[in-house]
Amino acid sequence: MKSNDSNAPIAEKQPTKLEKHGDVRIDNYFWMRLSDEQKVAPIKDAQAQKVIDYLESENSYYETVTAYTKKFQDQLFEEMKGRIKEDDSSVPYKDNGYFYITRFETGKQYPIYSRKKGNLKAKEEIMFNVNEMAKGYDYFQLGGLSVSPDNKYAVFATDTVSRRQYFLRIKNLVTGEIMSDIIDNTSGVAVWANDNKTIFYSKQNPTTLRSEKIYRHVLGSSASEDVEVYHEKDETFGTYVTKSKSESFLIISSYSTVSSEAQFLDANNPTGKFKIVQKRERDLEYNVAHYKDHFYLLTNKDKATNFKLMKTPITASSKENWTNVIPHRKETLLEDFSIFKNYLVLEERTNGLNKIRIKRWDNKDDYYLPFDEETYSAGVYDTPDFDTDIIRYSYNSFTTPISVIDFNMKDKTKKVMKEQEVLGGKFKRENYISKRVWATARDGKKVPISLVYHKDTKLNENTPLIQYGYGSYGVTISDGFSTTRLSLLDRGFVFATAHIRGGEYLGREWYEDGKMLKKKNTFTDFIDCSKYLIDNKYTSSKHLYAMGGSAGGLLMGAVVNMNPELYNGIISAVPFVDVVSTMLDDTIPLTTGEYDEWGNPNLKKYYDYMKSYSPYDQVSSKNYPNMLITTGFHDSQVQYWEPAKWIAKLRELRTDKNLLFLHTNMEAGHGGASGRFEALKETAREFTFFLALENKITAEKIKL
After folding, report:
1. Which of helix, strand or coil describes residue 255?
2. Residue 385: exposed, middle, or buried by beta-carbon count in 10 A (0-12, 13-18, 19+)?
3. Out of 107, 167, 257, 478, which could bridge 377 as a Cys pair, Cβ 3.0 to 4.6 Å?
4. In DSSP terms, which residues pair with 168 in a beta bridge?
5. Is 191 helix (H, G, I), strand (E, B) or coil?
6. Arithmetic mean of pLDDT over the chain
7. pLDDT value at position 1?
8. CA-to-CA distance for 18 and 15, rounded, in angstroms?
9. Catalytic residue positions, numbered
10. pTM to 2 decimals?
11. C-alpha span between 610 and 600 (Å, rounded)
């Protein structure tokens, strides 16, 4: 794959002076930013049309240069699609007398949601056929399904733009009628009070998309009559509403990066007044569940860095009444918990690995489920049933397809309810090897890297290796199975996930050590993992590739500025790369709520630190690796103009002739295409980029 740089789009330079703290930045491509109104009606706006023309010229350039790979992309798409069981269905789960099922039909892009009353032999009731609902839309997302306590109504949310601004509607599940109620600009989640006619939902700020208000709506009324029950006025907080598993309480939660606050209301009294569990305090976080006459709280109170479980009487819920249930442990991160009538189920992480712990309330039993692979992922499903001995959990690894397992906590037996089928007849798990190695970071920290490859792949300096990373928000990247990844492994690639700081793979401190004024640890960890893989002959810089998306796209931008010579190719998806300008603009969605993640650049120390790594600000005249950058025109989380400006500046300043592509999905947002097969086409595009750089595709021969 060769580019003719003279044919690459050249963006017009319109210098814009940006000044803060006495520091002046000149942004030649600031003009690429459009408002939502301009995007909706670009034909009436010369600037909007100019931006769209530029994005489409980049798409055209990509299509032209990669034209010879199009046949391979199509074949790769069919290969990946061929592993998927198209007429698939979920394991049914029981809730309030009904079994609920999500299924797909052959050739269809979207799911069908159905239920059966009483038992699985009962007649199927189709609640929502998303294939029918999505007709006529380039993008369609259904979410927020919540059934009323009497099983008669379901509230649901739809997004047809991919900006995560959902309409809420209500369907009569008995008659099939869609009610006239329609509520716009919501977060897509609503819960029912116990009267079967009142719902509570969160509404977003139309500009920043911050979930800032909770409303009460009565079935059959106009949304204009809805009552505001809570307004979160602190711009660094968001808010949402849930219902306790016990069905007894409605809970409004407010959250920031470092603090939280919850309010509760008797679900039988929807017009009552919410009461605060514990007033917010900086650096105090807690999540609330209900059991009998207590609230149970997952919290970091008392400097419990890795969190602990406490309880408090409902009648005296402030923090001075909290008592320990599961104490804090320095070596174990308590990630979540589930409450059942006779059991407490804990989800923990020790040395990077998931643990599921079962503990009887009467203390007669306390044990962990056994997992024996070196690296894997396991997690407990949300089980609506309260009075049950059965928990449902999932298990998978780099080499083991995902299984859904029902475990009897009383007699300790398990039943595999479903294991993901990999069609095509070629997959055998024993043909793949996964392991975990530890790289030493420059400050002495040991950074884990999870690897998977085909057993026939020889590990040496000629082995192509893709290193993936994220490293922000405390998000832990699981070592999970992927049917699409097999297309790379079967062609001799190694896939590696670097569990860098900024995530919580090694506990909460691992996250704290990769945010704010320690953010550069995320980038240097990734680079040091790359050096480890090269030094230990897993690959070489000629065959090392890296990829990441969103905040992982920021990671990609930072590492190619810092050590571009380590990589032959980079994919940076929906990348957050214009860090300073975005974090200075509190009108952009998510900005104010992330001051405690990245820092507030209105304060000089954060501005200076942020600018020192911001990929867009740090682009300079040097050689960069081959790069594919992707974005969505309607992205609400990382606006399209960040990658668009970034590639324009890279084209202006780079000194190499390597591949440099921007591909914009003009119909999608942050999550990409909405249909299950359309998403595969995006994956095929990305994989083809790496395979072409490894010369595994030629114009004369398409190799499968």
Report:
1. strand
2. middle
3. 478
4. 157, 183
5. strand
6. 93
7. 53
8. 10
9. 550, 635, 670
10. 0.90
11. 9
Main-chain dihedrals φ then ψ at residue 28, nearest 5 degrees: -75, -10
Sites in the chain below the pLDDT cut of 70: 1-6, 36, 39-44, 163, 589-590, 635-637, 668-674, 697-704
Tracing tokens 């809570």 back to the chain, one arrives at 230
Q: What pLDDT sits at residue 41? A: 62
Two tokens, residue 514: 């990769």
- For β-strands 227-231 and 238-243, DSSP reports them as unpaired
Please state, in angstroms and as integers, the Cα–Cα distance from residue 603 to each residue in 21, 77, 543, following that order.
8, 48, 41
Residue 84: per-residue pLDDT: 92
- Per the CB < 8 A criterion, the answer to whether 188 and 209 are in contact is no
Helix count and strand count (H, E) for the chain: 14, 37
Which residues 6+ apart lie within 8 Å of 597 measured at CB? 257, 472, 473, 515, 516
Pairing of strands 544-549, 465-468: parallel
If you write DSSP's letter for every residue of 440-490 in order, what string do you get?
A: EPTTS-EEEEEEEEETT---STT--EEEE----TT--------TTTHHHHT
pLDDT of residue 487: 97
**Backbone angles phi and psi of 234, in degrees to 5:** -75, 115
Three-state DSSP at 616 gives helix
The pLDDT of residue 42 is 59
Q: Cα(55)–Cα(663) distance, rounded to whole angstroms?
A: 8
The angle at the Cα of 639, spanning 635 to 644, to the nearest 5 degrees, equals 115
User: Which among 532, 576, 545, 541 is positioned nearest to 468, based on CA atoms?
Assistant: 545
Per-residue model confidence (pLDDT) at position 469: 98
- Please report, as a single letter, which amino acid is at residue 85: K
Nearest to 538 by CA among 484, 455, 457, 468: 457
Q: Give CA separation, 682 vs 80, 497, 536, 576, 663, in Å.
A: 12, 20, 32, 19, 10
Write the CB contacts of 345 (distance below 8 Å, at least 6 apart in sequence): 337, 338, 339, 356, 357, 358, 359, 380, 391, 409
Place of tokens 């049950």: 388
Classify 656 in phi/psi space as left (phi over 0), alpha (psi -120 to 50) or beta.
beta
Cβ-proximal residues to 698 (8 Å cutoff; 6+ apart), any chain: none
Q: What would the two tokens of residue 325 be?
A: 């249930």
